[in-house]
Structures are given as structure tokens and as C-alpha cells.
Design goal:
2 copies of one chain form a homodimer.
Chain A: E1 2-8, H1 16-28, E2 34-40, H2 44-48, E3 52-54, H3 60-65, H4 89-100, E4 103-110, H5 112-128, E5 133-138, H6 154-175, E6 182-187, H7 194-198, E7 212-214, H8 222-236, E8 239-244, E9 260-261, E10 267-268, H9 272-284, E11 288-292, H10 295-299, H11 306-325, E12 330-338, E13 343-350, H12 375-381, E14 393-394, E15 397-398
Parallel strand pairs in A: 1-2, 1-4, 4-5, 6-8, 6-11, 7-8
Antiparallel strand pairs in A: 2-3, 9-10, 12-13, 14-15
């Protein structure tokens, strides 16, 4: 009998709490193996600071409501651990905390950087001979983890952007004769076009949805883009553009200037849509409108995909099963066995196969001219947005739950490791 | 027996087609009074150009689906008619078209400018002695029409921004310890803060929802704003700001119209949200994120308010009833008789009482410091977002309908009035 740690890490999603709920429920279903789940307050920082959430302090109603609540119920973080082969003070501290609370199972829920955290902790535990079963759990709206067909969180973001692009196209179609000719919608995706490309699901034979999709994997060619905008406007009277925030020019420079850098060294982007609108207005004097979805697309639990919800829950449940089976340093991956009708299963993959990789969109998901998504791409995306997992409502608003996040009593002295409470470096 | 004209005008909404459906259904229910409805393709421009949609060419499925489809199904326009007492060529043309199609009922669905169109046409018909019953129908997400408690279209936009602000606050709450401290969401509202203020419904005793709301009616005070941001971040660790696009400084200048040029010589286009983020970053170096909702907020039929849907339908139905009763130059207005539980009815008001007026938010709906909404304001907004009028879905996307918009055969020569296809002059 021992306890488990669960942490949420990196940029949050509409469905990460469904994974949390699955982990908590799966542990409770195995009371003879794992006694308690301690949840890190703000992910791994909670472990470093011994800020462990006592979930027995949460009401059953709150825990049941996790499944339909966006964001990270227990707090997330962007924190890069040191390399376990160099300095060791963070790992010593982590092991001390785990030991103090008899934590022998470590579950960490996040994207690529978070899987790296799990890998490092497994390595560090091995180095000092501390018995710790480490399981990574996938989550990222970016959909860029290798070895898994898709990532929990992505399907709901994809559904949100496809619906938004569809709705915006109805709006612009209404207005174009005397007003707006071009609408540009900016979505997330620093390195990959997964989210932007998913908006293609709104395209149909009726001429709705995005006419042009711009992704980071294909360099922005201003001349070709403007030619395409002109052609679409001439043909149908208006043009809807969806662009990823990470769009780059032929020299590889982000169109949107980088003004801050996070803990992992990633620049914070924003503002490609107004840049493109600038190019279009300068060339054609069309009236344009633009939107930047930003957090709204990853927090939009109100229109979560049921497929995404099912998968977010399934990876949490599988993670606990793997731990109980004694698998080490694995991540539950989603394996697609069939697209139509959609079939999938969960399989363990070794975390070392996930870390450091970055799954770009296959080039054949995009048309030859690079502005639209092929049938192969649409076949990939379609099942991921299927089904509407509506939350319950109260007084016109989703009845999202907020955890109390009461902490368990500390057993160790305070930790003053210099890295542990510093915010991500932000030169602003 | 005669025919009716119905037109959609101005910026569109998530629920204007519910009004169209109501007008069409109400006319069909009175086959002994009004024979046919001719719908203007792009509003009044359709009448000028004799581009009249033959709704009998639309399938019953499409007409039934209008009620859950955003945008203007028949096209909208921004077109300002001449003054009927000055030149008359547009009015001569309109009367000719109405005469050619035996149109004796005129329904026009829009905001303040569209009500003005109805008033002018009623006046012009009177001047030339053409018997034409003219009814204005309210619609605007801006909620700024006088004489009506609220405007169809607003409740759904309000629901969208309240839900989005709520969801974003869950996201930022998750991330703030090591990442984003401030999130700024920009919503529509050039002159009025109705939409921005409605986001206050997301605020509750749990500290969620927007912490600061900025509206055009209250001049932006940079010092006070930054002080408030700092205070909120110090108190709860993060801050969510909702701003109306029409925010102005103490001199009355729009913040968003001030262009800046970056180091590369690229003009940074408007957008109040990035401007505010700039101020915050410069002062405090907080990591910030921002979004611009733009058209997404007024097209978001996927999360329409049931109250709004009911009212959008009711004003369309009432308009036809008023016409049949012989009322002239009136608009169905929504009269609130009680807030809790919410009760309302529809009453006719004379269009001359609506035209030219602009309903700002009452000052007492905002707190003394101008940054939050009072209980009086929340009592006003709360019933307008009640209920979720979900559209049907197909393959993960709303099953919105697109009209064929086949035109009836023309009876008149083409019209070359110089104004009729020019775009309305508008700030780009």
C-alpha cells in the first residue's frame, strides 16, 4: 500500500480535468493497491513546495463536476526541471517529499515538456534507488506529441475553431456586398498547423468555412497569399482566412513578433491576424475584420468534443492501470484503428519515444498550394470533433466547479530551492 | 390581398434568422391577408435592384432550419438611403419595385440605421400616396435602441461573452503561478458598454469572471486602470479584463485607432486588447494574453440564449400582427415587466421615438470606480442569457442551413442608381 501523486502541467485544456477525474476515480477503485491521491498544487511545483492538495477536502459534487470544468482544477505550471545528471537539489527535494507522503506512484499530465519532466523524475528516482512508478499522461491542444494518434484537449479545441470558422463564414457571407470582404481568424499553434487545419471541417460544398488556411509548416508567401485572397473574393465575394499564430515567412521568422519567452524558452506569440489584415488592406483596400481566439479556444468546455472527453478520461484510467501493472516510464497513447466508423484503443508507449519529438502535420494533409486541407486531412480530423459533451448550466452559465485546494499538512521544512517558485522568465 | 417585403439590415446576429422565420411563418398563417413574402437579397439593396428572394424555392427543411442558423440568411447590407425630402430617385425606384410586385407591407429588421430606413420609406410612400404599411423590427447585438428593454441578438452575444470570460478565468487561474498573470478580452461595442458589461455575469463569490470591465461610456484612465490591475494581481494572483472595442481616452479618442509602428516598420493595427496589454507589460512586466472576439461573438449560434431566441421570434410575429392590424411606422419593442422571475411582453412603439436615439448603459449599472458591474446591472443582464438554445448537429458541427436565394423573375428594367451597390462609408 502506498500513495500516488498526480500533477497537471503546461498549457491547460477544456478536458484535462476529465483526465484528473479518471485518475482519482481509478485510484479509488483500487483501494488495496493505492491508498490516496495527492494532487500537486500547480503541478510539479506543488511537489517541490510540498503543496499537496487533499482531495478528500473536496465535496463529492466538486469531484463529480471536474469532468465538465475547463482549465486545470488544481493549477498547472510551466517549470523546467534541472537535468538529473547535473545538479540534484530539486530531485533530492522531490524524493524527500514523495518519501514523506509515501508516494510510490507518479502521474504527470501534460504535453511534450511535461513528458520530459516524467522521464527525468523516473531517471532521478532510479539514480537514488527510490522505488517510484512514473506514468506520463498526454494532454495538449497542440496535438504535437509523437506516438499517439491525437492528444486529449485537441479535439475540443478543433471543434471550437471549426464551429467558430463556420459561424464567422455565415456572418461574412451576410455582409460582404456592402461591408466586410475578408475575415481573418487567428488560432493557436506555434510550430504546427493541427488546430488551424482542423477548421477545414467547416468547409463544405456550400462554400462555407475557411477559404484559406495558413500553417507554420508552410512558409508564408505573401504574393501567393494575396493572389489567392483576390481570387476567392472575385469568385465568391468574400474570403475567410484561418491562420496559426506561428506563421513564419520564407526566412523562418515569425510574422507575429515575439515579445516574451516562457520557462521552456518558447516565445509567446500573438497578433498574426492583424498583420495579415494589414497586407490585405494595403494591397486591395478591402474592408477586413479579424479575431484572435487565444485562451478561448482551449478553455471552451461549453462546446467540448465527446470524442475528446472520452479519450481524456480513457488515458487517465489507463495510466492508473499501467501503474498497477508495474509499467514504468510509459504514456498511454491513443491508437486509431479505423477512421470510418472511428475506432481507437489505448496502448502504452515508452516516454523516451515521446520526449523531444514534435509531430508536424503530414504535408499531404494540405493541398498542393498549401492553402487548404485535403480529404486525407479531413478524414483524420473528422472523428475527433464528433459529439457534443455539454456541461450542465445554472442561470444561463455552465456550472463549472472550483476546487477548494486545501493542502495536506506539511511534514517537511519549507523548500527554498531558487527555481521552484520563480515565474517563467519574462523579459516582456 | 397583397404581398410583403422583408429585409435584413446592418450587422448580423446569431438570432436574426429566427425573426425571419417568424415573419415568414406569421404571413403564411394569414393567407387571406398577405399572399407572399418577398425577401430582399441584401436588405434594401434587394428592393432597389429588384433582387427579391423567392422563398417558395427554399425547401421546407431550409426554412425550418432558419431558426437555428446565424448570420443573415438572405444577406444584409449597410446602405443609407437619401433623405426623402431631397432627391427622390431611390424612392421612386423602391415604389416602382413594390408596385410591380404588389408589395403593400414592408418589414425591415435591423438596428438604429435600419429603423431610420423604415421611417424614411414610410415617409416617401406617404409623399407619393402609395399605400404601404411599414413596420420596423429590432435587431442589434449592440443593445442600444431606445424604447425597448433589450434588442434581439444582444442576449446571445451577452451569453457568449459571459461564458468566454468565465472559461478564460478558469484558464488563467490555472496558469498564473508560473505563467500568464493578465488576460484581456476585447468585445464589440463602439459606443456602448452593454456587451462588455454583460460579461460580469461570470463573476461570482469564487473570484471567477472578469475582474475589470472597461466600457466606452467611461473614459479610460490609464493610471487608475494600472493601479487596479496591480491590486487585483496582488490580491488573487491574476486578473481578467474585458474591454469594449470602443474604449476612449480622456480626450474622447478611441484607443484602438492609434496605430503604432514596430521596429520592422510594420504598422500594428488597432485592437484595444493589445493596446491595454502593452500598457500593462510596460508598467509591470506581467506575462499577458489577449483575445479579440470580433464576429465570433455575434455569430455564436451554437450557444444562443433561449430568452434571446424567444424574443427574436416574438418580434417577428408581432410585426406581422401589427401590419395586419394596420399599425403604421411602428416597431415591436420588448417591455420588461419583472426581472425575477423574468417577465416581458411585446408592445408597439412609434419608429420616430427610436430613430436617432442611442441608449447608453445607465451609469448606476457600473460601480463607482467604473471597473465593475453593480447588482442593478447584473439584475438587468441575468434573464437575457437564460437558457441554451442548442442547434442540431451533424458530424460534430451545427447543422446550419444555407438558403439558395433564388430570385423571383424581374418585372422592371435594371436599376443603375449610383448609390445602390456602393458600400456604405464606414470606418475600416
Amino acid at each position: 500500500m502506498a500513495n500516488a501523486f498526480y500533477g497537471q502541467s503546461g498549457g491547460v485544456t477544456a478536458t484535462i480535468n476529465a483526465t484528473a477525474a479518471a485518475v482519482i476515480e481509478a485510484v479509488r477503485a483500487q483501494p488495496r493497491v493505492i491508498e490516496k491521491v495527492f494532487v500537486g498544487r500547480n503541478g510539479i511545483i506543488g511537489a517541490l513546495q510540498e503543496n499537496l492538495v487533499d482531495i478528500t477536502e473536496e465535496s463529492e459534487e466538486t469531484l463529480a463536476g471536474l469532468i465538465h470544468t475547463p482549465g486545470a482544477a488544481f493549477g498547472s505550471c510551466r517549470h523546467k526541471l534541472q537535468n538529473p545528471s547535473a545538479e540534484h537539489d530539486e530531485y533530492q527535494r522531490l524524493i524527500e517529499v514523495f518519501q514523506a507522503h509515501d508516494i510510490r506512484y507518479f502521474f504527470y499530465n501534460g504535453g511534450g515538456d511535461s513528458q520530459d519532466t516524467t522521464r527525468k523524475i523516473a531517471h532521478a528516482a532510479e539514480l537514488v534507488g527510490y522505488d517510484l512508478t512514473c506514468i506520463g499522461i498526454p494532454k495538449t491542444i497542440d496535438n504535437n506529441l509523437p506516438m499517439t494518434d491525437c492528444c486529449p484537449g485537441f479535439g475540443s479545441a478543433a471543434k471550437y475553431v471549426a464551429i467558430s470558422a463556420l459561424e464567422a463564414s455565415f456572418d461574412v457571407a451576410s455582409m460582404h456586398q456592402t461591408s466586410t470582404k475578408v475575415f481573418v481568424m487567428e488560432v493557436m499553434g506555434r510550430q504546427n498547423g493541427w488546430i488551424a487545419a482542423a477548421s477545414s471541417l467547416a468547409c463544405d460544398e456550400r462554400g462555407l468555412g475557411p477559404d484559406i488556411i495558413l500553417i507554420p509548416e508552410i512558409a508564408y508567401d505573401k504574393v501567393a497569399f494575396l493572389e489567392k485572397v483576390k481570387e476567392v473574393v472575385a469568385h465568391k465575394g468574400f474570403c475567410v482566412v484561418v491562420t496559426a499564430e506561428g506563421l513564419r515567412d520564407q526566412q523562418g521568422h515569425y510574422l507575429s513578433y515575439i515579445d516574451t519567452v516562457d520557462a521552456f524558452g518558447h516565445g509567446q506569440l500573438g497578433g498574426v491576424a492583424p498583420r495579415l489584415v494589414d497586407d490585405i488592406k494595403t494591397a486591395f483596400h478591402y474592408k477586413c475584420h479579424w479575431s484572435v481566439c487565444d485562451y478561448l479556444q482551449r478553455a471552451a468546455r461549453h462546446i467540448a468534443s465527446q470524442t475528446d472527453m472520452d479519450q481524456a478520461y480513457a488515458v487517465g484510467k489507463a495510466a492508473v492501470e499501467y501503474a498497477i501493472k508495474g509499467l514504468q516510464a510509459v504514456m498511454p497513447a491513443i491508437i486509431r484503428t479505423q477512421s470510418v466508423p472511428y475506432q481507437w484503443r489505448i496502448e502504452p508507449v515508452h516516454i523516451s519515444q515521446v520526449v523531444g519529438g514534435e509531430k508536424n502535420m503530414p504535408r499531404h494533409y494540405m493541398s498542393k498550394d498549401g492553402f487548404s486541407v485535403t480529404q486525407a486531412g479531413r478524414d483524420y480530423f473528422a472523428p475527433l470533433i464528433a459529439g457534443e459533451a455539454y456541461p450542465p448550466y445554472r442561470a444561463g452559465l455552465p456550472d463549472y466547479k472550483k476546487c477548494r485546494n486545501r493542502l495536506v499538512e506539511r511534514k517537511l521544512p519549507e523548500y527554498f530551492g531558487k527555481k521552484c517558485i520563480q515565474p517563467a522568465s519574462e523579459p516582456a
